[in-house]
Amino acid sequence: MNITILGPGAVGSLWACYLQKAGHNVSLWTRRTTPSELSLTLNTQENSSYSFSCDNKESLIHCDLLFITVKAWQVESALLPILPLLSQETILLFMHNGMGAIDAIENQISHHPILQATTTHGALKENAHTVKHTGFGHTVVGPFNSLGNQCQFIQDVLQHSLPSTEWNSDIQTALWKKLAINCAINPLTAIYQCQNGELSQPSRHQDVNRICHEVHQVLQQEQIQWTEAELLSTVYQVISATSANYSSMNRDCFYQRKTEIDFITGYLLQKAKQHAISTPINETLYNQIKQLEENLL
Ligand code: PAF
């Protein structure tokens, strides 16, 4: 397939390498103005290098799959300017933390097949040319609209490139579960500037448990079938499996970048408001991160 990666950060670069390795014709679309070539080294045992064309309009015009890996808050500004170049058959596949970014531009892209995906693969961009695959994980992909529902074959494309993957026609549930985990881990690790593992300490349990209690009330109203006990045990499993990692929001604050808070806790708060659910701890965390962002940016 002709595939363009929009936003080759850590996750985008990882998929770029594995898709190219599987034989696809992959190009990158970045924010640079001058077209250039980019080599990415996949820092696993094999250390292979891949070469991609960059910011090539022809590639975009002929792309079958646009794999959008920019952060949720960048989706609109990255995608809308290039939309006129795409054929209406081009499949749009979104992979980012958080929810609500597609809803904001839905009317402008609804003529495309749209897919959403979430992954637990770990990736680290060590420098502009090197991406490290820090942990093998699992990817869930599913349809955002009815045209997307006809594109189940994309799961095979992903599976042959970077297993394991699964097609889930109820991708919203998978995204809500990921959002719930991010609500519990990301703001706390950003505010305390700690590794994920620190949240397993007894002194942090009360915060994690209170966040999850509020999140669970919203999940229930959104018809997500997950008990509070299941949510808590999944959150503590992720904390333990990623104990040495710094969460993405921790890194964003550390490097003084804009965070994904509006699409994680912010999205939760919007939904809580619609259902008239009180979420004081999540509101406090949201305000603290917004304050940090204001001081940093
Ligand atoms: O955003 C992140 O960092 C990750 O989604 C997670 C699961 C919290 C692990 O660090």
Labels describing this entry:
297 residues, alpha/beta, Rossmann fold, N-(1-d-carboxylethyl)-l-norvaline Dehydrogenase, domain 2, 2 domains, 11-stranded mixed sheet, 11 helices, 11 strands, globular, binds pantoate
Describe the structure.
The chain is α/β, with parallel strands linked by helices and 297 residues long. Helix 3 links the parallel strand 5 and strand 6. The model has no long low-confidence stretch (mean pLDDT 95). The protein is 42% helix and 19% strand. An 11-stranded mixed beta sheet has the order 8-9-3-4-2-1-5-6-7-10-11. The longest helix is centred in the middle third of the chain and has 21 residues. The protein folds into 2 domains: 168 residues, 3-Layer(aba) Sandwich (Rossmann fold); 124 residues, N-(1-d-carboxylethyl)-l-norvaline Dehydrogenase, domain 2 (Orthogonal Bundle). The structure holds pantoate (PAF). Pantoate binds next to helix 6.
Number of structural domains: 2
Radius of gyration over all CA atoms, rounded: 19 Å
- Tally the beta strands: 11
Sheet with the most strands? 11 strands, mixed
Q: Rough shape?
A: globular
Tell me the structural class. alpha/beta
Q: What is the CA-CA span between the terminal residues?
A: 39 Å
Do you know the CATH architecture of the largest domain?
3-Layer(aba) Sandwich
User: What would the CATH topology of the largest domain be?
Assistant: Rossmann fold
- Binned strand content: 15-25%
Helix content: 40-55%
Q: Oligomerization state of this entry?
A: single chain
